[in-house]
Write a structure and sequence with these properties.
Number of helices: 19
Helix content: 40-55%
Radius of gyration: 22 Å
Order of helices and strands: HHHHHHEHEHEHEEHEEHEHHEEHHHHHH
Strand order of the largest sheet: 6-2-1-7-8
Shape: globular
Length: 388
Amino acid sequence: MNEALNLVAELVLRESGIRVQSAQHPALRSAIARALPNGDPAAFLDIAANPVEGARAIATLIDEVTIKETFFYRDRQQLDTIPWRTLHERAQAAGSQEIRIWCAACATGEEAYTLALLACEAFAPAAPPVRILATDISSAALAASHAGRYRERSLRTVAPSLRDQYFEQDGDQLVVGERLRSTVTFAQHNLVTGSMPPLGETTFDLIICRNVLIYFDGETADRVTDGLRSALRPEGMLILGSADVLCGTARRLVKLESIPPRRQPAPPSQVPLRKPLGVAAAATSSVSFDPFAVETRFLQGIAELESGEALAAAESLRHVLYLDPTFGLAAFALGRAHEATGDASAARRAYQQALRTIDMTDDRHEHLLEQVDLVDVATACRARLATL
Protein backbone atom coordinates (compact mmCIF):
# COMPACT_ATOMS: atom_id res chain seq x y z
CA MET A 1 0.00 0.00 0.00
CA ASN A 2 2.81 2.44 0.86
CA GLU A 3 4.52 1.59 -2.41
CA ALA A 4 1.31 2.40 -4.30
CA LEU A 5 1.03 5.72 -2.46
CA ASN A 6 4.65 6.51 -3.33
CA LEU A 7 3.89 5.84 -6.98
CA VAL A 8 0.83 8.08 -6.86
CA ALA A 9 2.95 10.82 -5.26
CA GLU A 10 5.50 10.43 -8.06
CA LEU A 11 2.68 10.68 -10.58
CA VAL A 12 1.43 13.93 -9.00
CA LEU A 13 4.96 15.36 -9.03
CA ARG A 14 5.50 14.40 -12.66
CA GLU A 15 2.18 15.80 -13.83
CA SER A 16 1.87 18.94 -11.69
CA GLY A 17 5.25 19.71 -10.12
CA ILE A 18 3.74 19.38 -6.64
CA ARG A 19 5.88 17.29 -4.31
CA VAL A 20 3.95 15.14 -1.82
CA GLN A 21 6.15 14.11 1.09
CA SER A 22 5.61 10.89 3.05
CA ALA A 23 4.18 12.89 5.95
CA GLN A 24 1.42 14.03 3.59
CA HIS A 25 0.45 10.52 2.54
CA PRO A 26 -2.70 10.49 4.73
CA ALA A 27 -3.86 13.67 2.97
CA LEU A 28 -2.99 12.13 -0.39
CA ARG A 29 -4.96 9.02 0.49
CA SER A 30 -7.95 11.24 1.34
CA ALA A 31 -7.58 13.04 -1.99
CA ILE A 32 -7.57 9.67 -3.78
CA ALA A 33 -10.73 8.71 -1.91
CA ARG A 34 -12.41 11.91 -3.12
CA ALA A 35 -11.26 11.22 -6.68
CA LEU A 36 -12.07 7.48 -6.63
CA PRO A 37 -14.97 5.85 -4.78
CA ASN A 38 -12.96 3.08 -3.07
CA GLY A 39 -9.92 5.28 -2.40
CA ASP A 40 -7.46 2.49 -3.20
CA PRO A 41 -4.06 3.83 -4.45
CA ALA A 42 -3.34 0.66 -6.43
CA ALA A 43 -6.73 0.87 -8.13
CA PHE A 44 -6.07 4.52 -8.92
CA LEU A 45 -2.76 3.61 -10.58
CA ASP A 46 -4.56 1.03 -12.72
CA ILE A 47 -7.08 3.63 -13.87
CA ALA A 48 -4.36 6.22 -14.44
CA ALA A 49 -2.61 3.80 -16.80
CA ASN A 50 -5.79 3.41 -18.86
CA PRO A 51 -5.46 5.46 -22.08
CA VAL A 52 -9.16 6.36 -22.01
CA GLU A 53 -9.89 7.02 -18.34
CA GLY A 54 -6.39 7.86 -17.10
CA ALA A 55 -6.20 11.52 -18.08
CA ARG A 56 -9.55 12.25 -16.42
CA ALA A 57 -8.57 10.43 -13.22
CA ILE A 58 -5.25 12.24 -12.99
CA ALA A 59 -6.91 15.62 -13.60
CA THR A 60 -9.44 14.88 -10.85
CA LEU A 61 -6.70 13.99 -8.37
CA ILE A 62 -4.71 17.12 -9.23
CA ASP A 63 -7.87 19.15 -8.64
CA GLU A 64 -7.95 17.66 -5.14
CA VAL A 65 -4.32 18.34 -4.23
CA THR A 66 -3.88 21.83 -5.68
CA ILE A 67 -4.35 24.87 -3.45
CA LYS A 68 -6.77 27.47 -4.79
CA GLU A 69 -6.85 30.22 -2.17
CA THR A 70 -6.77 33.74 -3.56
CA PHE A 71 -8.71 37.03 -3.50
CA PHE A 72 -9.08 40.29 -5.38
CA TYR A 73 -6.23 42.80 -5.19
CA ARG A 74 -3.92 40.35 -3.50
CA ASP A 75 -0.59 42.12 -2.88
CA ARG A 76 -1.96 45.41 -4.23
CA GLN A 77 1.40 47.16 -3.92
CA GLN A 78 2.92 44.77 -6.45
CA LEU A 79 0.03 45.15 -8.87
CA ASP A 80 0.29 48.93 -8.68
CA THR A 81 3.75 48.73 -10.26
CA ILE A 82 2.27 47.62 -13.62
CA PRO A 83 3.02 50.46 -16.11
CA TRP A 84 -0.11 50.16 -18.24
CA ARG A 85 0.61 53.06 -20.61
CA THR A 86 4.20 51.97 -21.12
CA LEU A 87 3.12 48.41 -21.85
CA HIS A 88 0.68 49.73 -24.45
CA GLU A 89 3.38 51.80 -26.12
CA ARG A 90 5.68 48.78 -26.26
CA ALA A 91 2.90 46.61 -27.69
CA GLN A 92 2.22 49.20 -30.39
CA ALA A 93 5.92 49.37 -31.21
CA ALA A 94 5.83 45.58 -31.68
CA GLY A 95 2.92 45.91 -34.09
CA SER A 96 0.03 45.13 -31.75
CA GLN A 97 -2.76 47.42 -30.64
CA GLU A 98 -3.41 45.39 -27.50
CA ILE A 99 -1.42 44.51 -24.41
CA ARG A 100 -1.18 40.73 -24.25
CA ILE A 101 -1.24 39.41 -20.68
CA TRP A 102 -0.87 35.88 -19.39
CA CYS A 103 -2.17 35.27 -15.89
CA ALA A 104 -0.64 31.84 -15.19
CA ALA A 105 -2.01 29.60 -12.43
CA CYS A 106 -5.03 31.86 -12.08
CA ALA A 107 -6.82 29.55 -9.59
CA THR A 108 -10.47 30.60 -9.28
CA GLY A 109 -10.08 33.76 -11.34
CA GLU A 110 -9.80 36.56 -8.81
CA GLU A 111 -6.36 37.65 -10.00
CA ALA A 112 -7.31 37.64 -13.70
CA TYR A 113 -10.41 39.75 -13.03
CA THR A 114 -8.32 42.05 -10.82
CA LEU A 115 -5.97 42.67 -13.76
CA ALA A 116 -8.98 43.39 -15.97
CA LEU A 117 -10.33 45.85 -13.40
CA LEU A 118 -6.98 47.62 -13.08
CA ALA A 119 -6.74 47.88 -16.87
CA CYS A 120 -10.26 49.31 -17.12
CA GLU A 121 -9.40 51.94 -14.53
CA ALA A 122 -6.03 52.75 -16.11
CA PHE A 123 -7.53 53.43 -19.56
CA ALA A 124 -10.92 54.85 -18.51
CA PRO A 125 -13.17 56.06 -19.97
CA ALA A 126 -12.00 54.20 -23.09
CA ALA A 127 -12.20 50.42 -23.30
CA PRO A 128 -8.86 48.92 -22.20
CA PRO A 129 -6.62 47.78 -25.09
CA VAL A 130 -5.88 44.60 -23.15
CA ARG A 131 -6.34 40.88 -23.71
CA ILE A 132 -5.83 38.56 -20.73
CA LEU A 133 -5.27 34.83 -21.05
CA ALA A 134 -5.86 33.21 -17.65
CA THR A 135 -4.81 29.58 -17.26
CA ASP A 136 -4.77 26.96 -14.54
CA ILE A 137 -4.13 23.24 -14.27
CA SER A 138 -7.36 22.65 -12.33
CA SER A 139 -10.58 22.18 -14.27
CA ALA A 140 -12.58 22.83 -11.08
CA ALA A 141 -10.81 26.16 -10.57
CA LEU A 142 -11.45 27.14 -14.17
CA ALA A 143 -15.13 26.30 -13.81
CA ALA A 144 -15.30 28.69 -10.85
CA SER A 145 -13.43 31.32 -12.90
CA HIS A 146 -15.93 31.05 -15.74
CA ALA A 147 -18.82 31.39 -13.29
CA GLY A 148 -17.26 34.53 -11.80
CA ARG A 149 -19.34 34.37 -8.63
CA TYR A 150 -17.62 35.41 -5.41
CA ARG A 151 -18.54 35.92 -1.80
CA GLU A 152 -17.74 38.94 0.30
CA ARG A 153 -14.46 37.53 1.58
CA SER A 154 -12.94 37.42 -1.91
CA LEU A 155 -13.82 41.07 -2.57
CA ARG A 156 -13.06 42.47 0.86
CA THR A 157 -10.28 44.71 -0.55
CA VAL A 158 -12.35 46.11 -3.44
CA ALA A 159 -13.78 49.60 -2.87
CA PRO A 160 -17.61 49.80 -2.78
CA SER A 161 -17.61 52.18 -5.76
CA LEU A 162 -15.73 49.63 -7.87
CA ARG A 163 -18.02 46.82 -6.76
CA ASP A 164 -21.02 48.84 -7.93
CA GLN A 165 -19.34 49.57 -11.25
CA TYR A 166 -17.94 46.17 -12.18
CA PHE A 167 -20.02 43.58 -10.28
CA GLU A 168 -23.68 42.65 -9.89
CA GLN A 169 -25.21 41.58 -6.59
CA ASP A 170 -26.94 38.20 -6.60
CA GLY A 171 -28.04 37.19 -3.14
CA ASP A 172 -24.98 36.80 -0.95
CA GLN A 173 -22.64 36.72 -3.97
CA LEU A 174 -21.14 39.28 -6.31
CA VAL A 175 -21.04 38.33 -10.00
CA VAL A 176 -18.39 39.65 -12.38
CA GLY A 177 -19.85 42.04 -14.93
CA GLU A 178 -19.44 41.99 -18.70
CA ARG A 179 -16.80 44.76 -18.78
CA LEU A 180 -14.35 42.50 -16.96
CA ARG A 181 -15.48 39.24 -18.55
CA SER A 182 -14.94 40.58 -22.08
CA THR A 183 -11.26 41.18 -21.31
CA VAL A 184 -10.42 37.69 -19.99
CA THR A 185 -10.23 34.30 -21.68
CA PHE A 186 -9.80 31.19 -19.53
CA ALA A 187 -8.04 28.02 -20.66
CA GLN A 188 -6.49 24.92 -19.08
CA HIS A 189 -2.69 24.79 -19.04
CA ASN A 190 -0.08 22.85 -17.09
CA LEU A 191 3.00 24.93 -16.23
CA VAL A 192 5.10 21.81 -15.71
CA THR A 193 4.24 19.79 -18.82
CA GLY A 194 2.63 22.38 -21.12
CA SER A 195 4.26 24.47 -23.85
CA MET A 196 5.59 27.96 -23.18
CA PRO A 197 3.77 30.04 -24.29
CA PRO A 198 0.61 27.94 -24.26
CA LEU A 199 -0.18 26.15 -27.50
CA GLY A 200 -1.60 28.52 -30.11
CA GLU A 201 -0.41 31.65 -28.31
CA THR A 202 2.34 34.12 -29.18
CA THR A 203 4.56 35.93 -26.70
CA PHE A 204 3.17 38.27 -24.06
CA ASP A 205 3.80 41.83 -22.88
CA LEU A 206 3.10 40.91 -19.26
CA ILE A 207 3.12 37.55 -17.48
CA ILE A 208 2.00 37.28 -13.88
CA CYS A 209 2.55 34.04 -11.98
CA ARG A 210 2.44 34.57 -8.24
CA ASN A 211 3.04 32.19 -5.35
CA VAL A 212 3.05 29.04 -7.43
CA LEU A 213 6.76 28.20 -7.49
CA ILE A 214 6.69 27.68 -3.71
CA TYR A 215 4.90 24.37 -4.32
CA PHE A 216 7.56 23.08 -6.75
CA ASP A 217 10.98 21.65 -6.08
CA GLY A 218 13.94 23.84 -7.06
CA GLU A 219 14.64 22.20 -10.40
CA THR A 220 11.01 22.41 -11.50
CA ALA A 221 10.70 26.02 -10.31
CA ASP A 222 13.79 27.01 -12.31
CA ARG A 223 12.50 25.24 -15.41
CA VAL A 224 9.08 26.91 -15.15
CA THR A 225 10.69 30.31 -14.61
CA ASP A 226 12.85 29.84 -17.71
CA GLY A 227 9.72 28.91 -19.66
CA LEU A 228 7.84 31.98 -18.47
CA ARG A 229 10.71 34.24 -19.48
CA SER A 230 10.82 32.63 -22.93
CA ALA A 231 7.12 33.45 -23.36
CA LEU A 232 7.75 37.19 -22.99
CA ARG A 233 8.18 39.67 -25.78
CA PRO A 234 11.43 41.67 -25.74
CA GLU A 235 11.10 44.21 -22.89
CA GLY A 236 8.16 42.20 -21.55
CA MET A 237 7.44 42.17 -17.83
CA LEU A 238 7.35 39.09 -15.58
CA ILE A 239 5.77 39.41 -12.12
CA LEU A 240 6.39 36.62 -9.63
CA GLY A 241 5.07 36.40 -6.09
CA SER A 242 7.30 37.64 -3.30
CA ALA A 243 7.20 34.23 -1.64
CA ASP A 244 8.32 32.72 -4.96
CA VAL A 245 11.25 35.14 -4.98
CA LEU A 246 12.41 34.00 -1.56
CA CYS A 247 11.99 30.35 -2.56
CA GLY A 248 13.59 30.76 -5.95
CA THR A 249 17.08 31.13 -7.27
CA ALA A 250 18.70 34.23 -5.80
CA ARG A 251 20.90 34.90 -8.81
CA ARG A 252 17.87 35.00 -11.11
CA LEU A 253 14.94 36.08 -8.97
CA VAL A 254 16.38 38.09 -6.07
CA LYS A 255 17.94 41.30 -7.38
CA LEU A 256 20.52 41.83 -4.70
CA GLU A 257 21.95 44.82 -6.52
CA SER A 258 18.53 46.51 -6.42
CA ILE A 259 18.79 46.98 -2.66
CA PRO A 260 20.51 50.35 -2.29
CA PRO A 261 23.06 50.80 0.48
CA ARG A 262 22.02 53.05 3.28
CA ARG A 263 23.57 56.48 3.11
CA GLN A 264 24.70 55.99 6.67
CA PRO A 265 24.37 52.86 8.78
CA ALA A 266 21.75 53.23 11.44
CA PRO A 267 23.25 53.68 14.90
CA PRO A 268 23.31 50.44 16.88
CA SER A 269 20.69 50.06 19.55
CA GLN A 270 20.51 47.67 22.44
CA VAL A 271 17.88 45.01 21.78
CA PRO A 272 16.96 42.37 24.36
CA LEU A 273 18.07 39.01 22.98
CA ARG A 274 15.44 36.33 23.00
CA LYS A 275 16.55 32.76 22.50
CA PRO A 276 17.14 32.49 18.73
CA LEU A 277 16.75 29.39 16.62
CA GLY A 278 19.27 26.72 17.43
CA VAL A 279 21.45 28.99 19.56
CA ALA A 280 21.67 28.72 23.33
CA ALA A 281 22.00 32.12 25.00
CA ALA A 282 21.46 33.62 28.41
CA ALA A 283 18.07 35.30 28.72
CA THR A 284 19.63 38.49 30.03
CA SER A 285 22.10 38.93 27.15
CA SER A 286 21.96 41.82 24.71
CA VAL A 287 23.68 42.58 21.43
CA SER A 288 24.29 45.66 19.33
CA PHE A 289 21.79 45.78 16.48
CA ASP A 290 23.01 47.19 13.16
CA PRO A 291 20.29 46.80 10.50
CA PHE A 292 22.75 47.25 7.64
CA ALA A 293 25.01 44.47 8.95
CA VAL A 294 22.02 42.21 9.53
CA GLU A 295 20.73 42.73 5.98
CA THR A 296 24.18 42.16 4.51
CA ARG A 297 24.54 38.84 6.33
CA PHE A 298 20.96 37.93 5.36
CA LEU A 299 21.70 38.48 1.66
CA GLN A 300 24.91 36.51 2.04
CA GLY A 301 22.90 33.62 3.44
CA ILE A 302 20.40 33.83 0.57
CA ALA A 303 23.22 33.80 -1.99
CA GLU A 304 24.90 30.85 -0.27
CA LEU A 305 21.64 28.93 -0.16
CA GLU A 306 20.93 29.37 -3.84
CA SER A 307 24.53 28.56 -4.75
CA GLY A 308 24.04 25.15 -3.18
CA GLU A 309 25.97 25.94 0.01
CA ALA A 310 23.13 25.08 2.35
CA LEU A 311 25.28 24.47 5.44
CA ALA A 312 27.04 27.83 5.04
CA ALA A 313 23.66 29.49 4.44
CA ALA A 314 22.24 27.99 7.63
CA GLU A 315 25.21 29.32 9.59
CA SER A 316 24.80 32.81 8.11
CA LEU A 317 21.06 32.87 8.74
CA ARG A 318 21.42 31.60 12.30
CA HIS A 319 23.84 34.47 12.88
CA VAL A 320 21.25 36.90 11.49
CA LEU A 321 18.66 35.56 13.91
CA TYR A 322 21.15 35.82 16.77
CA LEU A 323 21.45 39.53 15.99
CA ASP A 324 17.75 40.04 15.29
CA PRO A 325 15.48 37.21 16.52
CA THR A 326 12.39 39.03 15.17
CA PHE A 327 13.58 38.99 11.54
CA GLY A 328 10.89 36.69 10.13
CA LEU A 329 12.29 36.71 6.58
CA ALA A 330 15.57 35.28 7.89
CA ALA A 331 13.70 32.55 9.78
CA PHE A 332 11.86 31.63 6.59
CA ALA A 333 15.13 31.47 4.63
CA LEU A 334 16.68 29.38 7.41
CA GLY A 335 13.84 26.92 7.00
CA ARG A 336 14.71 26.64 3.31
CA ALA A 337 18.36 26.04 4.21
CA HIS A 338 17.47 23.29 6.66
CA GLU A 339 15.26 21.67 4.03
CA ALA A 340 18.18 21.72 1.61
CA THR A 341 20.33 19.85 4.13
CA GLY A 342 17.57 17.32 4.80
CA ASP A 343 16.93 18.44 8.40
CA ALA A 344 13.14 18.48 8.35
CA SER A 345 12.79 18.95 12.12
CA ALA A 346 14.97 22.08 12.12
CA ALA A 347 13.13 23.35 9.05
CA ARG A 348 9.79 23.03 10.82
CA ARG A 349 11.12 24.97 13.82
CA ALA A 350 12.40 27.71 11.53
CA TYR A 351 9.09 28.06 9.67
CA GLN A 352 7.20 28.12 12.94
CA GLN A 353 9.57 30.85 14.17
CA ALA A 354 8.95 32.78 10.97
CA LEU A 355 5.18 32.62 11.48
CA ARG A 356 5.54 33.84 15.06
CA THR A 357 7.75 36.78 14.12
CA ILE A 358 6.80 37.74 10.56
CA ASP A 359 4.62 40.63 11.75
CA MET A 360 7.50 41.91 13.90
CA THR A 361 9.66 42.60 10.84
CA ASP A 362 9.65 46.39 10.91
CA ASP A 363 10.95 49.36 8.95
CA ARG A 364 14.52 48.67 10.05
CA HIS A 365 14.51 46.38 7.01
CA GLU A 366 12.53 48.70 4.76
CA HIS A 367 14.58 47.99 1.62
CA LEU A 368 13.88 44.28 1.86
CA LEU A 369 10.22 44.85 2.69
CA GLU A 370 9.81 46.82 -0.53
CA GLN A 371 10.47 43.57 -2.43
CA VAL A 372 8.29 41.13 -0.53
CA ASP A 373 4.80 40.81 0.84
CA LEU A 374 4.75 39.39 4.34
CA VAL A 375 1.33 37.81 3.87
CA ASP A 376 2.75 35.79 0.99
CA VAL A 377 5.78 34.78 3.04
CA ALA A 378 3.45 33.56 5.78
CA THR A 379 1.54 31.61 3.13
CA ALA A 380 4.79 30.07 1.97
CA CYS A 381 5.66 29.08 5.55
CA ARG A 382 2.36 27.29 5.93
CA ALA A 383 2.84 25.59 2.56
CA ARG A 384 6.28 24.31 3.54
CA LEU A 385 5.03 23.15 6.95
CA ALA A 386 2.24 21.25 5.19
CA THR A 387 4.80 19.68 2.87
CA LEU A 388 7.03 18.67 5.77
